Amino acid sequence: MLRPEEANVAEGEAILDIRVPAPELPDELEWVNTREPVRLGALRGRVVVLHFWCHSSVNAQHNLPDLRHLENKYHDGLSVVSIHCPRFPAERVGANVLKAVNRAFIRHAVASDPDFRAWQLFKVPAWPTVVVLDTEGNIARVLVGEGHRATLDALVHQLLEDAARRDARVYESAVPVSRPEPKMPLRFPGRVLATETALYVADSGHNRILETTHDGRILCQFGSGNPGFWDGKATDAGFSNPQGMAIVKDVLYVADQGNHAIRRVRLHTGEVDTIAGTGQQGLGVVDDSEALRETGLNAPCDLAAAGERIFIAMSGANQVWALDLARQRIGRVAGTGANASHDGGLDVAAFARPSGVVSHGQMVYVADADGSAIRSIRLIDLQVRTLAGAGPWEPGDVDGVPEKARLQAPGAIAIDPGGALLWVADTLNSKIKALSLRGGGVRTLALPFRFHEPTGLSVAARALWVANTNAHEVVRIDTASGQIKRLPIGE
After folding, report:
1. Tens digit of pLDDT for each residue in 278-289?
2. Which of 165, 180, 201 is the last residue of a domain?
3. CA dihedral defined by 402, 405, 410, 415, rounded to 10 degrees?
4. Number of domains in the chain
5. What is the CATH number of the domain that holds 35?
């Protein structure tokens, strides 16, 4: 089986800078958001950027704002085409790829390449990779990894100017394409946080946080609904793809993933401000920093409160961090930064896109999405251990004892109040599972309900609350009876 790799953030050098004719895209590609296939031969006169990605790759997600920047700036001479190559079995399904495209607000043509035909044709080495074609259809540059906005901007400008001088440029705006989601009150809700009296929903696709009753009646909205990074009161504030939440006293903390920041909502007044992060992606390892607002974060995805500490699933850095509210410091708890699944101490242990985190006593539990595993961190000595799952290249859907159980990109976890059971959102298997912390293994909940890539879980008020993300809904599961209720939020 082909095993492409996840590009490291630091990979930035061009691996090819020779003009050779680009091959045509294979006929076998499935175009998920266009009626007709894209032919590179029909794009002569335009610069073409081919983006090879998979939607579970956080590095590939970081490329999307850069591509959107190029599309807006060079709309009359540039075409962007994305080729989706799956990391997980569920990503081979075109309908799932379309959901990912809509979740990311992509408005250029996207093809699903489940058999890696275009990938191999263009000799792509890793996710993500950008291949730039000049106006005559030749490969001008191949860039691996993320963080190439300045390089791509300069290159596209140069190629278009050169083509204009030779009268080889077509001046025509690219036509946006889409197969949009139906309009719903919620749009791809990413996370939920339940208390004994209220429910908080990260309505991620609408860039806002909703406070509701347990029956789904909206009490308050934080965030304007438009993507942005600004502080303010209630709907005057701006979020970008907000995800995990945690409450400490009367303050709601939010992992503002698209802004690479931790935001703070004062529930009594509705005031929203930024407690950590610069608004820009941070790189490198930070072990202990007192400059919270000057410390760069990297795609914080989930939060878990433990007294005056908030643990952070820092998915873009492949690490778990902690924000110490009492000491006003932030830094790494575990993870070398490598995208891998290694157990051990601080200098050895590695995570693969940690996406969910929960704390209980002296333990922190982590849903390690790319590792298709559930991990634990023992705080007394920072030892990391794998509780279930076999690592990045062995996803599956198998219940049973921990060493044989298999998951597929679990995105969230929640812990039973007694501390003996972890609930798991097995995201790409579209199932809710339970992992016994007393050696009982993994089992799938037999529920008469269809889940569609759930990515958020919370336990409170004798119920398990689920963000059924790709179905644009939140559901409540009674933990005693198993009765399921869909909440009519905003309806």
Report:
1. 999 998 889 999
2. 165
3. -40
4. 2
5. 3.40.30.10
